[in-house]
C-alpha cells in the first residue's frame, strides 16, 4: 500500500466546510487480525524481506537525539518512511537553532554518538562576503566563507574571479588549470603573468582577512511545523491508538502536514498554536511545575475533552516554544465508557532528556490536579 489516499487529497486540495481534507476513511485496524500499519504511509507491516515499506522499525516519538525514550516509541513505522522522514523532517527540525542550542547545552548525542555543530548564516562586515559561523559542542567557534565564482566573457578571452576559503579556492583554481592544459589554453593572472602550475597560485591571490561577522538567525515555520506535527502524530497514535491514527478526523489531518505542501494544509481544522506557552490551567493538569521546567523535562499528553482530543507538547521544560493542538473528534482508545476512563489509563508522558527516565501521566493524575 502506498500514500495514494493522502497524495490524492493533496493534489485535489479540496477543503470541506469544516476545513478537514476529504480523505477516504480506511478499514478498521485490528491488531491480531490484521498486520499493523505504518503511521506515516499506511503500509501493512508484514515484515516482507527486502521490502523496506513493509518492514517495521523502532520509531522514537520524541526523536532520540532530542532526548527521546525507548519506552515512548512505536514499532508501527516502516523502515522506508522512518529513514525518509528522519532525513527530510527530523534532521532539519534538529538544526533549528533553539533545538540545536538545547542539544549542546544538555550534551544530547544521537545514535551516531556525536552532537552536530550549530551553523549560523553570516556575512562579513568588512567585505560583505557570505560566511557560516560554526559552533561545536565544546563551544569552540570557527567560520568559513562561501565560494563565489564570477565569470566575465570578454571578446578574446574569459575572465574568472574566484573567492572563498583559501583551500577551496586553491582546489577550484587547480581544476581550472588542469582543464586549460587539456584544452591547450594558456592561463594568465590579471597582471598578465602566465600561470603554469598551482605553485604560482599564491603569487596571484589577494588575501583578505575579516574579524567582524554579522549572523542572521531565522526560524523556518514549515520545518518547525513538520517536526512538531510528526511528534504529535506519534503522540496521538501512542495514546489514542490506530483507530485515531487512521481516521479522517484524526491522524489523517496531522499526516497531511507531513506530506503536503503548506498551501494545502487543513489550517482551519488544526486549531491551536505551534509556538507559544501552554495556558496555566492545562500546564497544571499535566503536571508541568516549576521543578519540571527547571529539570528540562519533555511533557507530552493527549487530553480527552467533550469536543475531542487535545495534544499538549512541552519540550525541554518549555525552553522551546510549547504547543497545543486539537486532534479531532475521533477518540480511539480514549473514548469514554459511561462518561469516564479507567483511572490508570495513560494519557501522557514525562521524559528526562539526559537520563531518558520516563514517567507516565494517567487519568488519575489529571483528575487529582483538576
Task: Give an account of the 3D structure.
It is built from 11 helices and 14 strands. With 370 residues, the chain is α+β, with helices and mostly antiparallel strands. The protein has a domain at 4-93 and 220-368. A 6-stranded antiparallel beta sheet has the order 9-12-11-10-13-14. Strands 5-4-3-8 form a 4-stranded antiparallel beta sheet. A two-stranded antiparallel sheet has the order 1-2. Helix 1 (4-12) packs across helix 8 (251-259), helix 2 crosses helix 6 (221-240) and helix 6 (221-240) packs antiparallel against helix 8. The protein is elongated and about 90 Å long. The two termini are 44 Å apart. The relative contact order is 0.13.
Query: Could you give the order of strands across the largest sheet?
Result: 9-12-11-10-13-14
Main β sheet profile:
6 strands, antiparallel
Backbone shape = elongated
Strand content: 15-25%
Question: Order of helices and strands, N to C?
Answer: HEEHHEEEEEHHEHHHEHHEEEEEH
Question: What is the terminal separation in angstroms?
Answer: 44 Å
SSE-based structural type: alpha+beta
pLDDT below 50 for ≥5 consecutive residues: which ranges? 1-9, 11-32
User: What Rg, in angstroms, do the CA atoms define?
Assistant: 26 Å
Record field, number of beta strands: 14
Task: Report the mean per-residue pLDDT as an integer.
Answer: 84
Helix content: 25-40%
Number of helices: 11
Oligomer: single chain
Protein name: HNH nuclease domain-containing protein
Amino acid at each position: 500500500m502506498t500514500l495514494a489516499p493522502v497524495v490524492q487529497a493533496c493534489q485535489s486540495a479540496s477543503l470541506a466546510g469544516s476545513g478537514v481534507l476529504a480523505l477516504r476513511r480506511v478499514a478498521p485496524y485490528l491488531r491480531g487480525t490484521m498486520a499493523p500499519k505504518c503511521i506515516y504511509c499506511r503500509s501493512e507491516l508484514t515484515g516482507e524481506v527486502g521490502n523496506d515499506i513493509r518492514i517495521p522499525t523502532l520509531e522514537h516519538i520524541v526523536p532520540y537525539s532530542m532526548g527521546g525514550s525507548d519506552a515512548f516509541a512505536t514499532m508501527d513505522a516502516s523502515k522506508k518512511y522512518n529513514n525518509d522522514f528522519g532525513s527530510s523532517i527530523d534532521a532539519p527540525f534538529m538544526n533549528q537553532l533553539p533545538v540545536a542550542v538545547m542539544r549542546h547545552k544538555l550534551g544530547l548525542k544521537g545514535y551516531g554518538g556525536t552532537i552536530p555543530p550549530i551553523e549560523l548564516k553570516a556575512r562579513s562586515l568588512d567585505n560583505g562576503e557570505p560566511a557560516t559561523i560554526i559552533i561545536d559542542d565544546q563551544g569552540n567557534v570557527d567560520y568559513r566563507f562561501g565560494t563565489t565564482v564570477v565569470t566575465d566573457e570578454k571578446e578574446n578571452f574569459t575572465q574568472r574571479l574566484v573567492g572563498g576559503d583559501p583551500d577551496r579556492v586553491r582546489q577550484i583554481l587547480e581544476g581550472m588549470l588542469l582543464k586549460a592544459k587539456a584544452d591547450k589554453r594558456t592561463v594568465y593572472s590579471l597582471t598578465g603573468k602566465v600561470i603554469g602550475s598551482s605553485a604560482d597560485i599564491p603569487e596571484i591571490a589577494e588575501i583578505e582577512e575579516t574579524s567582524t561577522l554579522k549572523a542572521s538567525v531565522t526560524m523556518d515555520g514549515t520545518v518547525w511545523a513538520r517536526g512538531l506535527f510528526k511528534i504529535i502524530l506519534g503522540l496521538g497514535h501512542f495514546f489514542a491508538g490506530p483507530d485515531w491514527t487512521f481516521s479522517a478526523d484524526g491522524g489523517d489531518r496531522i499526516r497531511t502536514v507531513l506530506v503536503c505542501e503548506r498551501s494545502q494544509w487543513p489550517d482551519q481544522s488544526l486549531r491551536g498554536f505551534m509556538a507559544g506557552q501552554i495556558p496555566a490551567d492545562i500546564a497544571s493538569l499535566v503536571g508541568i511545575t516549576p521543578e519540571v521546567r527547571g529539570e528540562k523535562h519533555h511533557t507530552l499528553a493527549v487530553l480527552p475533552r467533550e469536543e475531542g482530543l487535545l495534544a499538549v507538547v512541552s519540550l525541554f521544560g518549555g525552553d522551546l516554544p510549547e504547543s497545543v493542538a486539537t486532534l479531532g473528534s475521533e477518540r480511539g482508545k480514549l473514548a469514554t465508557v459511561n462518561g469516564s476512563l479507567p483511572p490508570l489509563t495513560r494519557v501522557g508522558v514525562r521524559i528526562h532528556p539526559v537520563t531518558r527516565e520516563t514517567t507516565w501521566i494517567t487519568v488519575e493524575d489529571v483528575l487529582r490536579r483538576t
